[in-house]
Amino acid sequence: MTQKVINSDIDVLIDALRSLGGGAFLSETAKNLKTAINSVVSTSKPASVTLKLTIKPDQHESGQIVVFGQNGLNLPKEPVKTRFYVSNEMLPSRNAPEQLVFDFKK
User: Fold this and answer.
1) Rounded to an integer, what distance in angstroms lies between the CA atom of residue 8 and that of residue 55?
2) Angstrom distance (rounded) from CA 38 to CA 57
3) Regarding beta strands 85-86 and 92-93, do their DSSP bridges make them parallel or antiparallel, or are they unpaired?
4) Confidence of residue 72 (pLDDT cuts 50, 70, 90)
5) How far apart are CA 106 and CA 89, in angstroms?
6) What is the rounded (10 degree) CA torsion for 91, 92, 95, 99?
7) How many CA atoms lie within 13 A of 78 on its CB side?
8) Domain segments of the chain: what residues?
């Protein structure tokens, strides 16, 4: 079942987002959303996309405003990892303890 939202205010918002930076803001937002979704799928950890709109009065024209858009992306960090054996001295080692080493140089 598809829910339909019919409201002219939504159109105004989308038009404003589409206008910021000649479409660059909305394009960047979509890219960030895709990146966040991909990160959540691959790590099973939460991510977030933040949109910030700052509205200021235009200092040069009375009755006009200037809208600034900013995107933020917060992705889960996948730690860098590798496996080690633990040596008899309780230190990480690339070789298994008690592993036989063959000397093929003879």
Assistant:
1) 20
2) 38
3) antiparallel
4) very high
5) 30
6) 40
7) 9
8) 8-76
HSE-CB of 42 using CA atoms within 13 angstroms: 11
Q: At what angle do helices 24-43 and 8-19 cross, to 10 degrees?
A: 100
pLDDT tens digits along 23-43:
999 999 999 999 999 999 988
CA distance 47 to 25: 19
Residue with tokens 């991510």: 47
- The string of pLDDT tens digits covering residues 40-68 is 998 899 999 999 999 999 999 999 999 99
Placement of tokens 């990480």 in the chain? 92
Q: Please tell me the distance from the alpha carbon of residue 59 to that of residue 64, in angstroms, as a whole number.
A: 8
> Distance between CA 17 and CA 24 in Å, rounded?
9
3-state secondary structure 44-96: CCCCEEEEEEEEEECCCCCCCEEEEEEEEEECCCCCCCCCCEECCCCCEECCC
Token output for 17: 């987002």
